[in-house]
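Field log, afternoon session.

UNIT: design team B
ACTIVITY: writing a sequence onto a fixed backbone
BACKBONE:
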């Protein structure tokens, strides 16, 4: 069987309520020459049975059934067997627009780019709100990170709003960091730096569910420490390749805004000792790598109350006030 032009990799873990819509959106693509690699990552619900039913109906579906290893491990398992010239990652609780594969393939072929980045529909299930996350780059041009370092501060770091040449991963040896959350933060910018050309499509082609039940992105736990690991992986890679000084301000910005978003998740955590330790580690990391933080070429405080989160003493006082207020309310 000849290799398909595109490999679509979908990690699957306990998503029975979302999986059929995701699969239907891929199988309904206007472009047909693709393989769908579904990686069942140790699901405990009937996600695997759903995959098997779909595979019986469409020979383009390949199932990898493996023990649970997390999102990165599942993506890497799919990528390891991918045969397409291009690769697209899709999260199994999301879905895609009918012409995503065709339009991205056409853009990559026309431009010779290694990566194409497209806009996203973001859904808030609780409110029914749909918003569009747009890129700010001209889709009639191609770019490089060296010429546009600010791109690191402007694009989503998500794996799924991009299509890549598979060779971009293979030639660099880059895979998704195993066992970690915030894995895209440790991967996307390393890939960007290696792209000979980067293209854009200024239309929403991916549908992301931001607040589904069980989504961990809005919760605080010890996995929040992984954001530090992912920033370090990226910074160390830039140092190893002699790019660190060139992108010093951009890396500082990425560290600041991503750590700040994790710090915001501590607002309603009642364990003061755990939160204070996390704050201390975060600011130790920032000050060790960027001692002038929060001074930066780019605006780190983007929202009204962000000024609270760039100073550890101020932040601890604020969180202590919130905890006392909560205690009074509960009394």
């Amino acid at each position: 069987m000849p290799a398909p032009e595109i490999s679509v990799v979908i990690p699957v873990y306990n998503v029975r309520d979302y999986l059929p819509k995701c699969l239907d959106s891929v199988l309904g693509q206007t472009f047909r020459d693709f393989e769908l690699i579904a990686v069942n990552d140790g699901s405990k619900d009937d996600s695997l049975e759903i995959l098997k039913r779909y595979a019986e109906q469409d020979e383009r579906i390949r199932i990898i059934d493996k023990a649970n290893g997390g999102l990165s491990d599942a993506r890497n398992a799919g990528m390891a067997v991918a045969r397409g010239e291009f690769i697209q990652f899709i999260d199994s609780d999301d879905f895609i627009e009918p012409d995503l594969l065709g339009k991205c393939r056409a853009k990559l072929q026309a431009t010779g780019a290694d990566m194409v980045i497209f806009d996203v529909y973001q859904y808030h299930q609780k409110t029914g709100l749909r918003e569009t996350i747009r890129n700010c780059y001209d889709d009639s041009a191609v770019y490089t990170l060296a010429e546009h370092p600010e791109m690191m501060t402007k694009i989503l770091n998500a794996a799924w709003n991009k299509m890549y040449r598979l060779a971009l991963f293979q030639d660099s040896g880059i895979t998704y960091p195993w066992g970690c959350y915030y894995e895209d933060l440790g991967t996307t910018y390393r890939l960007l730096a290696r792209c000979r050309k980067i293209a854009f499509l200024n239309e929403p082609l991916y549908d992301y569910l931001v607040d589904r039940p069980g989504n961990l992105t809005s919760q605080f736990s010890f996995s929040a420490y992984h954001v530090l690991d992912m920033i370090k992986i990226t910074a160390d890679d830039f140092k190893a390749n002699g790019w660190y000084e060139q992108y010093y301000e951009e890396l500082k910005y990425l560290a600041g805004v991503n750590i700040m978003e994790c710090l915001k998740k501590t607002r309603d955590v009642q364990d003061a000792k755990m939160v204070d330790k996390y704050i201390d580690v975060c600011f130790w990391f920032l000050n060790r790598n960027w001692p002038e933080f929060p001074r930066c070429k780019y605006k780190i405080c983007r929202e009204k109350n962000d000024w609270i989160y760039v100073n550890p003493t101020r932040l601890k006082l604020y969180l202590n006030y919130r905890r006392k207020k909560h205690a009074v309310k509960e009394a």
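LOG NOTE: The chain has a mean pLDDT of 95.
NEXT ACTIVITY: expression trials, pending approval
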